[in-house]
Amino acid sequence: MEEKVESIVDNYQRDEGMLVSILQDIQAEYNYLPKEALVELSQTLGTPLSQVYSVATFFKAFSLEPRGRHLINVCLGTACHVRGGVRVLEAIERELDIKAGRTTKDLKFTLETVNCVGCCALGPVVIIDGEYQGQMKTDKVRALLENYT
To answer: How far apart are CA 76 and CA 41, in angstroms?
Structure first.
C-alpha cells in the first residue's frame, strides 16, 4: 500500500494543496480510504494526520469504511418521497439484508440515501453506479439488483 500511496502523491508533485484530489485517487484505488493509506499519506506529505482526517471526514464523497463494488443511492427528496421512495428503499434493504448507510458482507453493494438528485419528474429515483433508474417501484427492485450481481 505504501508504494501505491507514494505513487499517487507523486502524481501531484507531493503538493499538500492537492489533498482532496489525492484522497479521491486513493479512494478510487481502494474503493474507500483505508486507515493505513491515510497514515502513509500524512507521512509522505508531511501533513498532520488530524488534517488528513479532517478533510477525509468533511466530504460525504469519502468513505473510511469499505464500500461495495456497486453504490446504490435512493432519492428521498420530497417528490421521490411522496411517490414511494421510502417503500423502494425498504424493498432494497430487504433484498440486500442491510440498512441504508451499510455495505453487504460480500462487499457487492453499498446502500445510501440522498435528499434530491434533481430529476423529480422521474421519482422515485434509484441511482446505481451513476445510472439513474426512474419511476422505480418495489416490484422492480429484485430485477434491478440482479443486473448487478
So the answer is: 36
* pLDDT tens digits, one per residue of 33-68: 999 999 999 999 999 999 999 999 999 889 999 999
- Reported residue count of the chain is 149
Domains of the chain by residue range: 2-58, 70-146
Q: Cα separations (Å) of 118 from 81, 91, 108, 129, 144?
A: 13, 22, 26, 17, 21
pLDDT at 42: 97
Q: How many CB atoms lie within 10 A of CB 130?
A: 7
Distances, alpha carbon 107 to alpha carbons 17, 34, 53, 68, in Å: 32, 15, 23, 4
Q: In sequence order, which residues have a C-beta less than 8 Å from that of residue 48 and are 6 or more positions away?
A: 42
Q: Phi and psi at residue 94, in whole multiples of 5°?
A: -65, -45
C-alpha distances (whole Å) from 115 to each of 23, 75, 79, 119, 126 are: 24, 6, 10, 12, 12
Which residues of the chain are modeled with pLDDT < 70?
none
CATH for the stretch 70-146: 3.40.30.10
pTM across the whole model: 0.78
